[in-house]
UniProtKB/TrEMBL annotation:
Stored CDD domains: PBP2_AatB_like
Naturally occurring in which organism (per UniProt): Niallia nealsonii
Coiled coil: none
Superkingdom field: Bacteria
GO molecular function: ligand-gated monoatomic ion channel activity
Descriptive protein name: Amino acid ABC transporter substrate-binding protein
Gene Ontology CC entries for this record: membrane
């Protein structure tokens, strides 16, 4: 009797293991056609959380429309922006798509689509600040998002050597909050981003007269995955041709800013 009980328990355990494997396999199969997109969920208006904590933004709508053209589902995965390329190369995400600036350094790590939006790195300060040009940053404390193109743009400008201190933040929201609290004199930030915040807080900020560097946004694909890159670019091209991209741009920017 004891032996029969042991056999029964062993068979039961085996059944549960197989059932679990089957369930996991089905779940994985069900997600095979979903594109996992890595985003910074505090990067308005490209991708951010609204009052209901829902992820929204230009890039969110843009990605959903492209996925529709490709016939796949899409899932947005908030990530630490400092580790975005690692997330992509490890396979935890399929795309980096959230105001991702195309640079020569990043081209060594990822494949890029054609540029779809123009941007620039600019310097923002408080509305009542006496700062007006880049030279005025001499001896000042400046903030920016860590491992961002803002950091690259500042490093490439001679004013960097004259700045008293550069403070890095995990996202732009934290940097702007420190600016408003007086802990920073200025913030280097994407023009697309600060334009959005300035429409929300018209009396809080102003831009310096000079920008640091023009740039363009692209979508990052894992090295070696040319097939996905080709399918994605085809979908983006179709969106330009049929007016889908223009409609999304007009919704978020009031005009068509998408590059053809």
């Amino acid at each position: 009797m004891k032996r029969l009980t042991t056999i029964f328990l062993s068979l039961t355990a085996l059944f549960l293991i197989l059932a679990g494997c089957s369930s996991t396999s089905k779940e994985k199969e069900g997600n095979d056609d979903a594109l996992i997109i890595g985003i910074d969920d505090k990067f308005a208006p490209m991708g951010f959380r609204d009052e209901d904590n829902k992820i929204v933004g230009f890039d969110i709508d843009y990605a959903k429309a492209a996925a529709g053209k490709m016939g796949v589902k899409v899932k947005f995965q908030p990530i630490d922006w400092q580790t975005k390329e690692s997330e992509l190369s490890s396979g935890r995400i399929d795309l980096i798509w959230n105001g991702y600036t195309i640079t020569d350094e990043r081209k060594k790590k990822v494949l890029f689509t054609k540029p779809y939006l123009k941007n620039a790195q600019v310097v923002v300060t408080l509305k009542d600040s006496k700062l007006s040009k880049l030279a005025d940053l001499n001896g000042k404390v400046v903030g920016l998002q860590s491992l961002s193109s803002a950091s690259d743009a500042l490093d490439a400008n001679p004013i960097k050597s004259k700045i008293k201190e550069v403070t890095e933040f995990s996202d732009n929201v934290m940097a702007l909050n420190d600016l408003k609290s007086g802990r920073l004199d200025a913030v280097v930030i994407d023009e697309v981003v600060i334009d959005y915040y300035m429409t929300k807080e018209k009396d809080s900020f102003k831009l310096l007269d000079e920008s640091l560097a023009p740039e363009e946004y692209g979508i990052g694909v894992k090295k070696g995955n040319e097939e996905l890159l080709e399918k994605l670019q085809k979908a983006l091209d179709e969106m330009n041709e049929d007016g889908t991209a223009a409609k999304i741009s007009e919704k978020w920017f009031g005009e068509n800013k998408v590059l053809n």
